[in-house]
Amino acid sequence: MFLLLQANTTELYSLRDLMLIAPELILTVCGCVALVMEVVLPYRKSKWTAYFALVSIGLAAASLASLYFANRDLFPLDGFYGMLRIDGFAILFKAIFLIGAALTVAVSMRYLDVEGEQHGEYYALVLFATVGMMFLACGFDLISLYISLELMALTFYVLVAFTKREKRSNEAAMKYFLLGAFSSGILLYGMSLLYGVAGSTNLGEIGRSIGVALQPSVNELGMMTSGIPLRPLILLGVIALSAGLFFKISAVPFHMWAPDAYEGAPTPVTAFLSTGSKAASFALYLRIFTEALGGLRGTALDWAPLVAIVAAITILVGNWAAVTQENSKRLLAYSSISNAGYVLLGLVAGNSYGYIGIVIYLLVYTLMNIGAFGIIISLRRRGIIGDNVNDMAGLAQKAPGMAAMMAIFMLSLGGLPATGGFIGKYFLFGGLLQRGRLEEKSWYYWLAAWAIINTVVSFYYYVRFIKVMYLGERVADDRPLALSPALRAALVVSLIGVIIIGIYPQPFIDLAQKLITPLTAGALAFR
Amino acid sequence: MLQDNLLTILILLPTVGALALIGHGLFWKRENDYRWIALLFSVITFALSLLLLTRVGENSDAAFRFEQKTLWIGAIGSYYHLGVDGMSLWLVILTTLLVPVSILSSWNSIKKRALSFYVFMLILESAMIGVFVSLDLLIFYLFFEASLVPMFFMIGIWGGERRIYAATKFFIYTAVGSLLMLVGIIALYYIHQQQAGAGTFDYLTLLDALKSGRVVITESSAFWIFLAFAFAFCIKVPLWPLHTWLPDAHTEAPTAGSVILAGVLLKMGTYGLLRFNLGLMPEMARRFAPYFVVLAIIGIIYGALVAMVQPDVKRLVAYSSVSHMGFVVLGIFSFTEQGMQGALYQMLNHGVSTGALFLLVGMIYDRRHTRQISDFGGLATPMPWFSTFFVIASLSSIGLPFLNGFVGEFLILLGTWLSTGFSYNWVATMIAATGVIWAAVYMLWMLQRVVFGRIRHGENARLSDLNAREVGLLIPLLILMLVMGVYPRPFLSRSRESVVAVQQRVTKSTGAAGSFSVEVQENKQR
Known about the structure:
heterodimer; A: mainly alpha; two-stranded antiparallel ribbon; two-stranded antiparallel sheet; 75% helix; 2% strand; globular; disordered C terminus; B: mainly alpha; 21 helices
């Protein structure tokens, strides 16, 4: 009602609102330009679109940085009548998406050449997907969040099917589309239930209404109400929301689509799907579950045990299933499932340690995973799939530098100290222990121990890559790798990122702590 | 300047050498230069490490020298904190000595991918030095894990037939242990945070807080934390029954890998027990002592008996390691000055003697491409130098008086006899003492079959004796065997106060919960 009144009396949105979404606007415009470029440019020049995409990502990053430095003392900033909220959380995640997008574009160029599918619209789609992710990070209303999610998901359905001539790619896209649409439906159902309870789609309003609904209060007739009638509704809403989101982050038991989609999709798309899309889904998850449902922590409707159980099973299934995989993309898909479980632990912890862990881990994961996929891409040639684990045999002799990079990415995925993966896991597990100490509940400890035990299992299959590359005598073949300057640059950037975060993480932790702390305050405000 | 940053320089120099090697490999690709560059850097590191002796003098107190402390990750209170005391001093020098020796030993035997080999060797050296000098638990864990990767590659790439199996087994075993230790480390951090306000990984801060009673680890937490640390270290030692990775890793590793593995990596385990388990949780150490003593004795006897029946010389030496490291653990858990000093001394002895034995086995393997005892016999005739060295190294390993092994084993057995930490200490001493006899049995029997007797295989008669390089790399170890056997004072007097500090901490500390008040007699010697 209030919103409507305001809409009638004032203009729909102000210039200030537009300034808040400047990075997204830049990407959208550039995405449209890229589409035009595809038509205008001759086929051989399609790569120009890729460079254009890189430039536009750079511009968006610059505008994001200026947005941050101009407003960092004013956060959180609400825009479009509460549809969006720009705060440290949004800025951090947007930065991760832009890094992921830039790396993806860089590793894609060569791949599309090899596949003979060098089309400009690919890069436009990547840009649009990035826009969707970025709106997911700053959306503060169920409607804006859902639309951004669909924007991201729809572009990914197309991207997964991008190698049109390959059956597996089409099959993967079909599976991904069907299950993705299904999960979106469930998610929407959960959202509608929440709307029904709270009477608003704004996350902050929902948070407040749920807080009120659960408070014992005296109604107009002078009787005590404890909000109990609403509980089943809220519970159902939380479960449906969680189920939808578990689909998106590929948590067990909703993970079935991931291995197929990851295996069939063009490799750079797999890289982007497993990092950017996953990080965006986590941003959505965090946003809803801290801002709107954070008040449920510690009540009878606490969702932490649910998430904890799912995380525990996800870690188990992801790691053990990965052990037996022969296809490296499929193996990394299961590894990505298990990593989703690890990141969920940060949500279960729900303290600043856990959130720092989520952000750092997602950043590192983006770097190391795109790096690993980049190396798989470099092995690929037309006609030869090149994504079997054994295709890496003897890489250490053929290309020592690439093998060393792959080894470091794998060790980082496993969480070996002095790599970024260790720092991320450290904070995730540390957050659990801290929470357990605070609440004096031992299951937090057991969960952390469970995660650590399964980390050892993960070493087994990460080390398998190293074993194949270094320890075998056999060389898969001695033809040169499919390298390009952009691919090399992307790999080196990822490598440097992983190592710097591993050896001197202090600046990253400081930044994450500063930007993420308000979220913690919001989540704990009800308690 | 040099002195103040000495430890950082010692850690970084080998890594710088590794980077220089990679740079050299990228631009010149001259295979023969690699070993020279690696040797140069490792020798400089060794020379610099001798500077440590300037500040850790004889009879110096237990304080840490060459300390360096800089904030590393402020958010979790982790410092880049290094320091060296009497306990770590000799282990660092042992490391820096064994690395150039093993580089020399690989001089001609590592042909395949030589660049990577020397790069891994130098990175490994950095990590090993780091383990012994770090005073921050997180940094310690970092180096502990970092030492794992190069060793994995060294076994896996340059190893023998079953190298991939051995390397994987080694990696998984050690990774499991060290992850458990990480849990223990984080638990200590939170206990400190809970009771003292801020969490810390700093060893000295933790030790201070525990000593002064500002922070008390409850009995049940201490139980689990002690086990977490002990598990990691016992896998590394390796204590029976966690030893099964060792024979495989040792046998499959290239000569240099075996030398480093036996000489240094195993010591990380016993060093960790001494420094962290005993230093941080002395009550638990007392409580667990009987179990460790029993396992150590089983290890001594089991290792010796299994070594006796090995047909493969290298495997025999590997099992003798299980036996010798059992002695070290026995000495540590005797909680007497003699026993613990002996344990520390035996760590060095084992590094020198077993290192030399592995080198010698490697040299004969380079010539004959077999390690089966039955393929040899009568080597004394064609290879007098080799045989002399082999006999001396074996005798040192057995513990013959006037050679280094004797001093260590004697001190350990004496310490066990005097120990009051567990009952039936005289039984333990007697059983452990038979280990020395068993060692004589398997070593002398092996010598008899390999070095003495008639030449049974024609090709052995034509074997060439050791060349100047091989003699040169063995000589330092040989001199050490003699010096350490005859005049142990410079070694023991430097480590004494540090070891006594730990010993006093274990014997004097009162149980946090007061539930286990083991009567510990004060050491008569002091």
